[in-house]
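Operator note (shift B, R.M.): manual run for MFS permease requested after the automated queue skipped it. Running by hand, logging everything below so the morning shift can see what happened. Input copied straight from the record, untouched. If output looks odd, do not overwrite the archive copy; leave it for review.
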Amino acid sequence: MSTTTTALQVAPPLVGESIELGHLDPSVSSGRQLGPDSNAESPHVSAGDNEGDEPPADALTEAERWNRPVKNIGRLAFAFVSFAIAGMNDAAVGALIPYLEEYYNLSYTVISLIFLTPFVGYSIAAFTNARIHVRLGQRGVAIMAPICHLITFAALASHPPYPALVVCNAISGFGNGLTDACFCAWVGAMDKANTIQGFLHSCYSLGALFSPLIATSMVVKGGLPWYTFYYLMIGMSGLEFAGLVMFFWDKTGAVYREEHARENADAGTAGAGTREAMKSKVTWLCALFFFAYMGVEVGLGGWVVTFMLRVRHASAYASGVSGSGFWAGMALGRAVLGFVTERFGERLCLAIYLGICLGLQLLFWLVPQFVVSAVAVAFLGFFLGPMFPGAVMVTAKLLPKRIHVSAIGFAMAMGGTGGTVFPFIIGAIASHKGVSVLQPIVLALIAVIAAVWLSFPRIQKRD
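Run finished. Output pasted below as returned.
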């Protein structure tokens, strides 16, 4: 019997043409060109070199995409819902403060404790996130976080004694801390991560934009008690629970350990990721960045309405519109500028955004006209918006993937601290000096953010 040999000729790729294997783990090359020299870089593996057709331990894997695997579409959709719920919860408290003061007959100082307690939950989440991921995987987060939201909103809807409200907000902070670290670390390893991060965080801003409008409409126009708003939040959290559990059910602790086994032989050691993350300079820089950034975001978003009323002497309606303009600008900036940041890189883009924010803040402060201030605030939101997801991306690129959850979780806990401490400080000073103190404080914080950003190490390009 004669044998026929069939020769397959593969044309060499065009000059400059390459195939990029997505955004890979930072510990490996971000892309590899398949061309005439690719065989020289990687040893040839014959059929007998790897029995059972199992990939070698150091094999490159393609990054996940928003639609690959297909289940990621549902996962991302309900991650967006979870972030929208966090934004709704955070922003509604400020809108309901006057009604809480009246209902419980308490002073502003005591009522403001409700802003501070979520930090406790965030801090606990920062030091337990790694353990939860190793033991329970993303499924554990998908179960625990919505339950925290349900407990909090059910308690608030029952309008218990005020100390119970303070404690319940710590529970919601724990749930938010879990989802922040889990979903930001997960999305950060995806293809086109900057764009997806932008949409993820814009959902938070959209929740923060609409919840005060909904809450105040229910109380003022509907004549309903303040706690009626939390019936809506219970329904949203029930939807969040059903969706997250459905789509993340297969992401167990065993799956998480397997995904990280190559990067960290000690992945199953409790707390190892947290200890390593705490030793990194990048983790602390990211934490300081978020600390100042959340101070600007929550401080400006929470006090701009009062500033417009008392300093710019605008009407209540116009002042409310200016506050909504800030959150709308932030949502739009995160959705739109994510594409720009993806194209030109985080370091350059965020430096430009920060320079623009410094100019806008000076314009807001020094030009005593309401229209100019309202426009400046809206554009401040627009250019501040993409900084949070951009900093998450840079941190993910600079740190090994095995400590992403721990590092980002700790940094976000520090951000939560800034988001509670600085609004409280602004209020305390404003009670004696007037709400105009908002301006120099925000300007100083933006300058701190810029200094911290320029202190980040440069991302080393890999061949």
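Quick read of the result: The two ends are 49 Å apart (CA to CA). The chain has 17 helices and no strands.
Leaving this for review. - R.M.
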